[in-house]
Amino acid sequence: ESYGLLAGVAFLEGPGADRKRWYMQQALLVRPYQSRVLFVAGQEALLDGNVSAALVSWKKAFHGDPEIRGELIRELTAVIPVTDLLTVFEPDQLGLEALLAHYQRLGEMDSAKTVAEYYESQLVEQLPSETKTKKLQSLKDLARLYEFLENPDQAIRMAQEASCLAPTDFELKLQIGRLLVQTERFQEAQVE
User: What whole-number distance in Å separates Cα of residue 121 and Cα of residue 138?
Assistant: First the structure.
């Protein structure tokens, strides 16, 4: 990590990129999987004009430390379209949650919906092979995503499936009831 910091301030030693390149190579040799090192390596690659190398480093960093993931999201969502981010970084569930929250916080609903749709497709694909505990969480996540995507019927269906796995989950019952009331299905809401 220290070599990454040295690479960032190597310009103070005067002109010439040799020392900077050496510091970065050393950082990658000593800590090849550390998110901060990969983040700085991506920055240095971008400064050298190597966009593809920057993206490779940032993808690895994105899947590591949550703090670095947050920095990458804040910096890259401003300049890279959401569909490209999803394609290049192939985010896992934590990355998708972070991206979705970021776009929602900024009020960029079109981008948030793109992330939600991608996230939904990932969850649906994984659902058949999940354990009961993981399936319960995925169904809850799907209900939340469908509600965000303004598909209340699917949200209700996912919440009801989740409720079958956890019949005493009060929050789920409340969510189902709220969704049923929103869709004016009052008699079903009373049963829940």
Answer: 11
Residue whose C-alpha is closest to residue 24's, from 45, 7, 36? 7
Asked if 4 and 37 count as a contact pair (C-beta separation under 8 A), the reply is yes
Question: What's the rounded Cα separation, in Å, for the pair 172 and 97?
Answer: 20
In Å, how far are 48, 173, 191 from 73, measured between CA atoms? 21, 34, 43
Q: What is the pTM of this model?
A: 0.80
pLDDT tens per residue, the chain (192 residues)?
444 444 444 443 545 556 566 565 665 666 666 778 888 888 888 888 999 999 999 999 999 999 999 999 999 999 999 999 999 999 999 999 999 999 999 999 999 999 999 999 999 999 999 999 999 999 999 999 999 999 999 999 999 999 999 999 999 999 998 898 988 887 787 776
